[in-house]
Task: inverse folding
């Protein structure tokens, strides 16, 4: 089964520290956590508090709102789990619906027993590649709808393409 601890170094590598880029639709982020997400823990949090987010808070957010939302501990292949969680990290719950569509299950945005069964029953290298391609297409659609986001697409592509399938 997949293990979140294996994913965390990858996530930190790509998310770095605090940024508040006015061009980024996510707004202020610290290690990839937006202020909106941080406020799910601390409803009145400020940007300064986000900037001082602790390692324990960061790990809790990853586990509770991303790894857990994807039920990644129940996914048999680490690479597939990381691809799905990372897509959810960057794109929100719609990523789960996109993945469910690829799996031919009802795209309800909830990873339950039917979605998990589909993930764990399919040819995993094929699923990994299909998720990778779907993510890249999703990024292209974002830029088509919001050309200002084009400045981020090369980084998004590099991130996805740096993910390597391991059996």
Result:
């Amino acid at each position: 089964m997949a293990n979140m601890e294996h994913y965390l170094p990858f996530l930190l590598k790509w998310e770095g520290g605090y940024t508040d880029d006015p061009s980024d639709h996510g707004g202020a982020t610290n290690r990839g956590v937006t202020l909106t997400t941080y406020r799910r823990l601390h409803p009145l949090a400020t940007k300064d508090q986000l900037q001082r987010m602790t390692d324990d808070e960061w790990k809790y957010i990853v586990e509770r709102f991303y790894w857990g939302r994807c039920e990644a501990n129940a996914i048999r292949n680490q690479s597939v789990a990381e691809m799905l969680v990372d897509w959810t990290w960057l794109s929100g719950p719609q990523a789960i619906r996109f993945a469910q569509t690829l799996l031919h299950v009802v795209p309800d945005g909830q990873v339950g027993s039917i979605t998990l069964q589909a993930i764990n029953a399919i040819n995993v290298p094929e699923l990994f590649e299909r998720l990778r391609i779907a993510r890249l297409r999703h990024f292209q659609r974002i830029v088509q709808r919001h050309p200002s986001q084009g400045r981020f697409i090369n980084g998004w592509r590099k991130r996805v393409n740096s993910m390597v399938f391991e059996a």
